[in-house]
């Protein structure tokens, strides 16, 4: 099984990987949604027909096609069809609206834009018209269809830019990140090989497929030949029935997903939330050690966490074979093709999974050092075993009276406080100190609001240095998050409390 997966990972293009898998296991399921099942053979065949329909619309190799669609079987078919044509596709997260969508369409110069029509009470077609989008077509319940005999030859090169993904744009306009088929295959391969999965597993995609994690997961399914349940709308406890009905063995998404599953588990202690679940896996945000221990202890499954970003879809990934300490404290190890260099505490990356840069050449020039390593802005260190430990973000270092304070260190400790459901620590401007430490706490369900004296006493009990103690505490019902992997938006907290 492992040898087959590694052999498939040598495919030059995503379409080649699809056809190789379809030839091996044409009748095995790959996508499950509600009562629908799509096999690997049907994925190949239906994607070819969709590619032919797109070709009839005028889509050709190199044509830029943007799409803003929910996580559905049709969405995966469309993206595979575009890969068959060798088009350049620009996925847009479904929760973005006029400003972000208009920016992405203008910057990418998209000639076509696929939307779901009206979805969850919002008219995407009308928004597309408002933004001046070209070639707008709906691709929710049905897709373009045609005769595959008219198709040009599939793309032969996997190193041409065929994907434009968008950074979250939390502090400015988003940046268009340039990827190739090979960079996405390399990222998905890292995830797949680390998790030690088999064709007997049942996965799940509960996050937007338009996120960079979408192709990560699709590549993993193609390499190992197992299916995933798709969730067009993810909410707990409503989604639990689908996890149980399909017998999901692997779930996750990001740290926020772990916390949501754990909160549901605590409503029914002693009874496993998802009986078949053996592994939670994800990334996209820091993983507090105390949350990791609680998930493993109370949910009765393994938790592996990884490190990735839009620019590098998978950098490191924890493995079920790792020691407990490595699983709790680190982000896992990189694959053989990923070089990690620590320069002045910053993590820098070079390897096949690294993007080709940005649409803006100036942003590309600023993002890479003289040796071709990507500057991540993340702080970390490598252990003797090659595991990566992230210690925070460069911009999350709070400088108080000339002393550097890691926001992540304080956050990890506060996750052990019973009244803290989640927490974000930020630096706020202070004329005397330069910056002061502010902890913004999302209260735990059923807990009373903590007070600053209680929080600082708890942190003193952990041995935290006195100069790192928060000087301000804000308690909120919910921290502001993005809609993809529910990552906390610290810039909004800084704006709110500065």
Automatic annotation (TrEMBL):
Keywords: Ligase. Residues 19-359 form the AMP-dependent synthetase/ligase domain. The keyword Ligase applies. The keyword Chaperone does not apply. It comes from the Bacteria. Belongs to the ATP-dependent AMP-binding enzyme family. This is AMP-binding protein. It comes from Streptomyces kurssanovii.
